[in-house]
Design a protein that fits this description.
Layout (H helix, E strand, L loop, with lengths): L3 E9 L3 E4 H18 L1 H5 L11 H8 L3 E4 L25 H17 L8 E6 L9 H9 L4 E6 L4 H15 L4 E8 L19 E9 L9 E10 L5 E2 L6 H4 L11 E2 L1 H22 L9 E4 L4 H12 L12 H4 L6 H8 L9 E8 L3 E9 L1
Parallel strand pairs: 4-5, 4-6, 11-12
Antiparallel strand pairs: 1-7, 1-8, 2-3, 6-7, 8-13, 9-10, 12-13
Helix pairs in contact: 1-3, 4-5, 8-9
Bound molecules: coenzyme A.
């Protein structure tokens, strides 16, 4: 079996952006009204007062300045505090498939491939908007791809885990050329009434074409030297939204059904795990950390990325070594490391080595070590 090449990457960015200031103004107006409306119960200790959010805190604590939203309408409306998406009929393209197709088309162009070249489609992301039929199969039909497709959910590590599936499938011969797509439509799962998490996420879609070296004919190819995944159970990042709510008689949209986390614990526990994972993965390939040309790291928090690279390098990584895209994209779940790759790969020279690494809920950590061809 020959080498496996990442031959193209695509990034689709929703046209709507929301700044920290816009988000904080809306949340604070909502919180003020809540506190006024519930003043008596708050005074009696029956309800907790809603604390105020701050744009300065958000930027300092996370590195985020703004985020994109697939649909902005409704998010800043204090009578709604969630996006308003138009429903789509069964015979219309779903929202998430639309995002996925937009990113996939860009990846196909970059890879110099057409739909006829693809034989496997993986849609891998943190949430899918329905259980079945798979979004991947809908995308497959929309693009006119033969072969097979399936969806995967691995929270923030969905992209790297999906790429590992593609890598293994191509090596095993069950696929020749795969499209791995991450349509991260997170905004419907954000609790915009929760000060601790209302600022964290943004929507985006990324896609990667991976193929056998024998068919590779694009401008920028990266040989996958190795892919590695690990999971370790944790309750510190959860979303309990489920079809089961219908029969447990719980409120299907209660706070615990939306994204929630113990951010401090996640920070403390995941940073050393991710650093160790990267170190072990490189060691297994006899590659020294200092010889890495680029780190395309998961984008959850700038301080996390700085800590991980400092732990491994013994110094701060430069923006050229470990680019950050959080400022304008925020945390885009699994797409973050792929956005970094999409925006920062063309300058690498032949034989330069880089690592894509994601980490997040599960906990889950995934990495791919790449060599520029
Ligand atoms: C979420 C995160 C940015 C919060 O930053 P932090 O430095 O840990 O902040 P803390 O949660 O410790 O909060 C510090 C204080 O700021 C407050 N605070 C939280 N959100 C705030 C906001 N939007 N505005 C103002 N203050 C806020 C907290 O309530 C806390 O107040 P206290 O000290 O009086 O209790 C950070 O923990 C993080 O990114 N963790 C990793 C999360 C992650 O990667 N998750 C994966 C998602 S898939």
């Amino acid at each position: 079996m020959g080498n496996v090449i990442i031959s193209g990457v695509g990034l689709w960015v929703p046209p709507n952006s929301i700044s920290n200031e816009e988000l904080v103004n809306s949340y604070n107006a909502w919180a003020q009204r809540y506190n006024q409306d519930n003043a008596e119960q708050i005074a009696a200790g029956a309800l907790e007062e809603k604390p105020y959010s701050s744009a300065e805190f958000i930027e300092k604590a996370s590195g985020i300045k703004s985020r994109h939203a697939y649909v902005k309408d409704g998010i800043l409306d204090i009578d709604r505090m969630r996006p308003k998406l138009a429903p789509r009929a069964d015979d219309e393209l779903s929202h998430q498939a639309q995002m996925a197709v937009a990113a996939a088309k860009k990846a196909l162009i970059a890879a110099n491939k057409t739909a006829a070249d693809i034989d496997m489609v993986i849609v891998s992301c943190a949430y899918t908007e329905r259980s079945y039929p798979a979004i991947a199969i809908e995308v497959q039909a929309e693009l006119g791809i033969q072969g097979f497709g399936f969806d995967m959910l691995v929270a923030c590590s969905a992209a790297t885990f999906g790429l590992q599936r593609a890598h293994d499938s191509i090596k095993a011969g069950s696929a020749r050329c795969a499209l791995v797509i991450n349509p991260e439509l997170i905004s419907p799962q954000i609790n915009y009434m929760d000060r601790d998490s209302h600022f964290i996420f943004g929507d985006v879609a990324t896609a990667i074409v991976m193929e056998q070296e024998s068919t590779w004919n694009s401008a920028h190819g990266f040989e996958v030297l190795s892919s590695r995944c690990v999971t370790s159970y944790s309750n510190n990042i959860r979303s309990n939204f489920s079809y089961v709510s219908r029969v447990t008689d719980e409120d299907p949209f209660a706070n615990d059904k939306l994204f929630h986390q113990n951010g401090r614990k996640v920070f403390k526990e995941v940073c050393p795990m991710a650093a160790q994972h990267i170190e072990d993965h490189l060691a297994a390939l006899d590659i020294s950390v200092s010889s890495l040309r680029r780190w395309w790291l998961h984008q959850a928090n700038i301080n996390m990325n700085l800590l991980i690279s400092k732990r491994l390098l013994g110094r701060d990584a430069t923006a050229d070594e470990a680019p950050i895209v959080l400022d304008t994209f925020a945390n885009t779940a699994s797409a973050g490391s792929i956005i970094a790759f999409a925006q920062h790969h063309e300058d690498l020279e032949r034989d330069d080595i880089g690592v894509i690494c994601s980490f997040g809920a599960g906990y889950s950590i995934g990495s791919l070590v790449l060599r520029k061809r």
